[in-house]
Design a protein that fits this description.
The protein is α+β, with helices and mostly antiparallel strands. The longest helix has 29 residues.
Length: about 250
């Protein structure tokens, strides 16, 4: 029987993993690895579906003799109904630069054998992405123009964004929009309302111009600066009958 995924062989919060009983020190990341690690964490977080959590460097007990920590993991938010602990991650990402592909393959094999559905490697030095194949016992190169689609993701994750920092921010923004993020939706709604208000204000100015009613710079700025839809609706109605701009703007006072 396999131990719980949260049973530890190594001391948590340290830089060690355990491979088949061998204690392995994982050195701190150099700049290429560290930067890519940070970007991938943010990317996966932005793309994760609502019922999933994302973690960095989270230890997972893969067997009686191994305890490893993927760079980035995606696992269900709900607790395991049988153990009450966390559930096993379904996706794992490993950034490869300071460690060899051989070590990354060992980690991927152990995670896969434990039940992690998909394990990816991002090769910083060669600018490529790979996915572990349990059937082949090795890595499969991924198309850099493809996207990772998975039930754990609320939006498809572009592989190019995993490889190139310049594309990461755009991909995160697109993912938040696709997931209907509340903050993004609020900004979109506000922008829509401002756009509608601007359109109504411009309609008032254009209607006055069509009727040959002159307006000075101050009155024009006042009309175009108005955002209250009720006020703009009043002005639009009055613009069809008023004889001067002063009459239009003073009508509310009466």
């Amino acid at each position: 029987m396999l131990p719980s995924i949260d049973d530890r062989l190594v001391e948590p919060e340290t830089r060690y993993e355990m491979y088949d009983g061998e204690l392995v020190y994982v050195p701190p990341a150099d700049p290429p690895h560290g930067i890519r690690h940070s970007k991938i964490s943010a990317l996966v977080e932005a793309h994760a579906a609502a019922d999933f959590e994302v973690a960095s460097d989270m230890l997972t007990r893969t067997s009686k003799t191994s305890d490893v920590a993927p760079d980035v993991s995606v696992f269900p938010s709900a607790r395991d109904p049988s153990t009450g602990g966390r559930q096993l991650e379904q996706l794992a990402f490993e950034v490869v630069s300071t460690q060899s592909m051989k070590r990354a393959g060992q980690k991927a094999a152990k995670l896969s054998e434990r039940g992690v559905r998909r394990v990816f490697a991002i090769d910083v030095e060669r600018v490529r992405a790979l996915e572990w194949s349990r059937a082949l016992g090795g890595w499969v190169l991924l198309d850099p123009d493809a996207r990772i689609e998975d039930p754990t993701l609320g939006a498809a994750l572009p592989i190019a964004a995993l490889l190139h920092a310049a594309k990461a921010d755009d991909a995160m923004a697109c993912a938040l929009i696709a997931k209907h993020n509340p903050a993004i939706e609020a900004v979109k709604s506000e922008a829509l309302q401002l756009g509608l208000a601007r359109g109504r204000a411009e309609a008032v100015v254009e209607l006055l111009a069509l009727r040959g009613i002159a307006i000075d710079a101050a009155d024009r700025a006042r009309i175009l600066g108005e955002s209250d839809p009720v006020q703009l609706a009043r002005w639009l109605a009055r613009a069809t009958t008023c004889t001067t701009a002063a009459e239009l703007l003073a009508a509310e006072a009466r």
